[in-house]
C-alpha cells in the first residue's frame, strides 16, 4: 500500500446557473455536494482531493478554477457516456431557494454508476467523506473503500427519486465512523429528528458511527456517550446557505482525522460552513479562506459550546 495522505470527498460535481430575484444571475458556477465538502475540508487542510465523474461537456475553465483553489482533481473523471449534471438554483427576494435539475443533463444516479474508484488515480487518503448522492452511489463508494484503513463519514441526499432501501435496512451505516445528516433528512427517512432515537436505531442495525445532526442556524447536535453537545453556528453575515451542510461535513472530516475528537471535528465543521454561508459559490468561498478568521471563529465556537442533554 502506498503512502497515506490527505482528505477525499466523493460525490457530485455540477454546473449551476444561479438566478437571484431583483439582483443578479451567475452562469456556469461549479457546484455539487462533493465540491462544497471539499471546500470545507480545504479550510483545515491543503491536501484535499475530489472523486467524481462529469461529462465531456463540463467546462474546462471550471475545472481550472477548482485546481487553482488547491483541490486535487486527479480522481475526477470525464466520461463520454453521459452529460454533466446541470442545476438551476433560483433565489427569491425573501431568501427562498429552489433547485431544479436541467433536463438535458445526466441524473445523479447516471453519473454515480460511472464513477471509478479513487484508488485507480493513485490516491490513498486518510479520511473520506461520502457526500449526498444517489443511495446506489453511496453503496458503490463504500465498496471502493472496503478493506481500507480510512476514516469514513457520510451525509444523505433525500429527493423523490432516491431509493431509501439502503438507509432503512441500515447496511450503509455499518462501516462509518460518523454519520452527519440534517434534521430534515432524518425526518424524511425516519419520521423524527430525535438524536437519541436515531443513535439507538443505528446501534440496533450494527453501526457504531458517531452521530451529528445539523440544525441550520441552531448549530449542530453531537451525541457522545449519551450526552448531546450543541456546536453553534459562527456565521457573521448570511449571504447564501447553499452547500453549508456539505462544507460542515468536509470540516468535520478534517477535524476527526486530525484529532479523533467528534466535538472538535464539529467545531471545525461549523467554521467551514461559515465561509460558504458568507458568499455565493464554492470557488468564491475557497478564495475567502483566511487563517486568522478560521482561528477566531473556532475559538468562538469552543466558548459557546453547550450541553443539551
Describe the structure.
- The protein has a ten-stranded mixed β-sheet with strand order 5-4-1-8-9-10-11-12-13-14, with helices on both faces. The protein has a four-stranded mixed β-sheet with strand order 3-2-6-7.
- The model has no long low-confidence stretch (mean pLDDT 92).
- It is 36% helix and 24% strand.
- The chain has a single domain, classed as Ribokinase (UDP-N-acetylmuramoyl-L-alanine:D-glutamate ligase).
- The longest helix is centred in the last third of the chain and has 16 residues, at 244-259.
- By secondary structure, the chain is an alpha/beta fold.
- The chain is globular, with a radius of gyration of 18 Å.
Amino acid at each position: 500500500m502506498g503512502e497515506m495522505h490527505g482528505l477525499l470527498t466523493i460525490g457530485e460535481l455540477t454546473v449551476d446557473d444561479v438566478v437571484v430575484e431583483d439582483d443578479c444571475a451567475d452562469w456556469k458556477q461549479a457546484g455539487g455536494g462533493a465540491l462544497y465538502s471539499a471546500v470545507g475540508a480545504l479550510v483545515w487542510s491543503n491536501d484535499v482531493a475530489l472523486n467524481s465523474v462529469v461529462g465531456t461537456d463540463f467546462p474546462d475553465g471550471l475545472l481550472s478554477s477548482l485546481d487553482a483553489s488547491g483541490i486535487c482533481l486527479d480522481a475526477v473523471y470525464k466520461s463520454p457516456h453521459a452529460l454533466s449534471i446541470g442545476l438551476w438554483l433560483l433565489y427569491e427576494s425573501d431568501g427562498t431557494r429552489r433547485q431544479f435539475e436541467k433536463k438535458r443533463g445526466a441524473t445523479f444516479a447516471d453519473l454515480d454508476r460511472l464513477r471509478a474508484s479513487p484508488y485507480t488515480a493513485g490516491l490513498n487518503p486518510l479520511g473520506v467523506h461520502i457526500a449526498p448522492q444517489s443511495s446506489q452511489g453511496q453503496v458503490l463508494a463504500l465498496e471502493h473503500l472496503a478493506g481500507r484503513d480510512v476514516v469514513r463519514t457520510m451525509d444523505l441526499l433525500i429527493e423523490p427519486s432516491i431509493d431509501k432501501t439502503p438507509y432503512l435496512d441500515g447496511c450503509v451505516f455499518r462501516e462509518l465512523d460518523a454519520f452527519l445528516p440534517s434534521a430534515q433528512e432524518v425526518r424524511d427517512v425516519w419520521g423524527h429528528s430525535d438524536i437519541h432515537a436515531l443513535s439507538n436505531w443505528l446501534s440496533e442495525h450494527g453501526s457504531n458511527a458517531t452521530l451529528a445532526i445539523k440544525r441550520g442556524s441552531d448549530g449542530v447536535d453531537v451525541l457522545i456517550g449519551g450526552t448531546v453537545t450543541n456546536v453553534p453556528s459562527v456565521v457573521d453575515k448570511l449571504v447564501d446557505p447553499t452547500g453549508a451542510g456539505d462544507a460542515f461535513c468536509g470540516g468535520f472530516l478534517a477535524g476527526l482525522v486530525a484529532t479523533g475528537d467528534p466535538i472538535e471535528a464539529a467545531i471545525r465543521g461549523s467554521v467551514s460552513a461559515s465561509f460558504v454561508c458568507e458568499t455565493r459559490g464554492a470557488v468564491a468561498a475557497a478564495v475567502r479562506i483566511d487563517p486568522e478568521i478560521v482561528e477566531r471563529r473556532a475559538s468562538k465556537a469552543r466558548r459557546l459550546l453547550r450541553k443539551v442533554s
